[in-house]
Design a protein that fits this description.
This protein has 182 residues and is mainly alpha-helical. It has a single domain, classed as Four Helix Bundle (Hemerythrin (Met), subunit A), CATH 1.20.120.450. Helix content is 63%, strand content 3%. It has eight helices and two strands; from the N terminus they run αααααααββα. The protein has a two-stranded antiparallel sheet. It is elongated, with a radius of gyration of 17 Å. The N terminus is likely disordered.
Length: 182
């Protein structure tokens, strides 16, 4: 657990410097996410304004699932392997198109999932040369390169980190309001 919480922003070793820069940016982005959640009160991990909203635990699951999906389905053009899929047991969305609510899960499980997916991503990308990094792959109605995928993953996690910070603040305010009424 201590290793996951202290990932830092070390430069990821790669043969291709551009890939290394992207992976280092991803490491920095993840370090900021970990910093945001590492001292989170247990109850705030699951706090939601209502039954339709996501909680922080749901968002952490979503970040890992999306990263795994982009890595395997779009970049490697194959299914997520069973050893990783056993940590990704929920669908991404419910029947109404909202992020799936995964219930209560220890923060350590969320961090371990994020870590496992990132190790797989780093292993794949660190072996790429520039031509492979920029080679287009068919992804639904469009084509994407691994370079674009990393750009997208950076943006995706940063946007959800903002949502996580908002949920922390709203949950703490709701807690203070409930305490004041008591």
């Amino acid at each position: 657990m201590a290793d996951i919480l202290s990932l830092g922003t070390d430069v990821v070793a790669c043969a291709e410097p551009l890939v290394g820069r992207y992976l280092t940016m991803l490491a920095d982005c993840r370090a900021l996410t970990i910093e945001t959640i590492k001292s989170l009160r247990f109850d705030l991990l699951y706090w939601r304004r209502n039954e339709f909203d996501s909680n922080i635990s749901d968002l952490l699951y979503h970040i890992a699932l999306v990263e795994a999906d982009w890595l395997y389905v779009d970049v490697l053009e194959r299914s997520i392997p069973a050893e990783l899929n056993e940590h990704l047991v929920y669908e991404d969305r419910d029947a109404h198109g909202r992020l799936v609510h995964i219930g209560t899960e220890e923060l350590e499980a969320s961090l371990e999932r994020l870590h496992r997916v990132r190790v797989a991503l780093n292993g794949t990308f660190s072996a790429m040369n520039l031509a492979e990094f920029r080679r287009l792959r068919k992804s639904g109605p469009r084509e994407v390169s691994p370079e674009w995928v990393l750009h997208h993953l950076l943006q995706h996690e940063a946007e959800h980190r903002g949502q996580i910070n908002l949920l922390k603040r709203l949950g703490a305010e709701a807690d203070r309001s409930a305490s004041a009424r008591s």
